[in-house]
């Protein structure tokens, strides 16, 4: 029983422990005591990194950096490497120079570590410098994000400081002035490093603007600015700082302080003060979505649309698939040579800080349309990814190689004002919010009236739990905190892009909730992945035609309300003019698209002899050029199934014999032009130019990672005898009126 219970808990270990549960006892770091005959080495992670805590293992020994061979290397050796660098544990390791070939000697080969060694030099091996390997066998590791509590950097090579990377337990910006202590996010203050369990300031005698740029980027800010040094000088006189032993030497394009070089030992006076200097202060510039304004406070919704670059398919603010605009068409970036440097340029361009991770392999969903850029190489100082050097040719690149980013964003403290209570795991529960009532902060529930997918999406994003998988209007099966049963928020309406539930429209202090809280309060369940349905524009263009069909052949469609209202008064021998087309709906997300309704509640339509798992799956509308709707149609889910799939993916959903309905990731469902209701009734419209629009999953019944691509728009011309569909595109913003960007001869988008 003990074994099974430990295994059950282990699957949720990475989420931490809910409030009220004691955290596991943390180990305290003890600096290794090495015997005099142990070789003195220093380690670093180098190469083509996509996260700061991964890379090629490099060893500094005998005044020279070298590498480690992958022969006999195991996760135990990786554990020794990561812990020697101050990380809590190793996640994985990679052979065959995954992070690029190193240079210099191969210092270690045939390592046989137990994982308990205090330094890699204590692991049995062929002997330091004895190897028959090539640099094509250089080993790399991925370490955990968490640092060892109390970790203290011990420099065993004092004469080679300039060659070493910075290794500290933690970094922070501590607001000093009262005006900044009250602000969220904290944008100005002392830069402090945690070393040996104690927070210390850095002497500013060798500090540069490039160092400030890296620190600001780590905390989610795209830039830095000057500050009032006189005020901080007065403060430093009143309170004696505690200085770290070293300076910092960054080039300015690092994504994290751990990638910067260690500066010279600080020149401290006998009384511990900084010789000729003061504690380092940074003042950072927040992106526009995080900057307070005098009129509105923080901007309520995250502005996703950007001029030339945007992120799509991410669960939280600051992550997503990278898409760029070229010639009025959004396209993706191929992940060949995709790096932390290039990802950081994207993040800063969008008003975030440096990149946490450069993702490859379509990890945040696959895009549609062209691949605009390949083999992107940035210096890290470009204002836009479109200024970086890249290869225009994307031969061999598919959307399975779409590049994505995760960016550092400012800490807004939103997670502290929201929690899920009573769920079986940290991903689900009754929604409880922290609000001010009569001068004190109290927890309470959210009224479930009008509670839906968009509101649940905001909750999951605010808590960093990914996407919503369900929105619940009853939560009697999740007994939350009894003291939090009372409703403290009602009338919540979200657009889905807000960073916090408090940013959504709601009743404020004027609560109105007939259902009450407690068992009827709002709840959510979250998921790290979600589907993403996208229509294929080319299929709509290529399959459009017009058909005149007699009413007596449209009785089933008439029963399902697929004709215009004028069809109710016409004889059975009259004709209806139908605009017909095919829809090919791809699932480009990270999980299968499944109907919200369970099989037991599917509706049988006797006329068409099939089940509808979603009563309204798509809407078809025809608009005049001034936006007036002139004709409409709709399609229930005739049957959600996998018509075709990408190579290597098996079909999972089939409608035959009352089978499971859905669309598998990497597959598509084709609604052919010749099935009932796959049309718009245009009998009553006049010849002219129109805008045709398709919306899938229009009521947001099923959560998706990106709803903006659920809309397809086309230009439509009807001359009374024929019909044409052209300029079809995905997305809410009409590209018919977008300013066209283009590439210049220097290989850049302008």
Automatic annotation (TrEMBL):
**UniProt-listed SMART domains:** SR
The cellular location(s) given in this protein's UniProt record come to: Chromosome; Endoplasmic reticulum; Nucleus; Secreted, Extracellular space, Extracellular matrix, Basement membrane
Q: Which SUPFAM superfamilies match?
A: SRCR-like
Tell me the Gene Ontology biological-process terms attached to this UniProt entry.
Answer: chromatin organization; collagen fibril organization
Show the GO MF annotations.
Answer: copper ion binding; protein-lysine 6-oxidase activity
- Needed cofactors: Cu cation
What are the cysteine partners in each disulfide bond? 69-133, 82-143, 113-123, 250-260, 378-388, 494-504
Principal location: nucleus
* Domain called SRCR: residue spans: 43-144, 173-285, 309-408, 418-527
Recorded hits in Pfam families, A to Z, give:
Lysyl_oxidase, SRCR
- Which InterPro entries would you find in this protein's record? LOX-like_protein (IPR050912), Lysyl_oxidase (IPR001695), Lysyl_oxidase_CS (IPR019828), SRCR (IPR001190), SRCR-like_dom_sf (IPR036772)
Gene Ontology cellular component annotations, sorted alphabetically:
basement membrane; chromosome; endoplasmic reticulum; extracellular space; membrane; nucleus
Q: Which keywords label this protein?
A: Basement membrane, Calcium, Chromatin regulator, Chromosome, Copper, Disulfide bond, Endoplasmic reticulum, Extracellular matrix, Glycoprotein, LTQ, Metal-binding, Nucleus, Oxidoreductase, Repeat, Repressor, Secreted, Signal, TPQ, Transcription, Transcription regulation
- How is the protein modified post-translationally, according to the record? The lysine tyrosylquinone cross-link (LTQ) is generated by condensation of the epsilon-amino group of a lysine with a topaquinone produced by oxidation of tyrosine.
Catalytic activity reported: L-lysyl-[protein] + O2 + H2O = (S)-2-amino-6-oxohexanoyl-[protein] + H2O2 + NH4(+)
- Please give the function described in this protein's UniProt entry: Mediates the post-translational oxidative deamination of lysine residues on target proteins leading to the formation of deaminated lysine (allysine).
Name of the protein in question: Lysyl oxidase homolog
Question: What is the source species?
Answer: Sander lucioperca (Pike-perch)
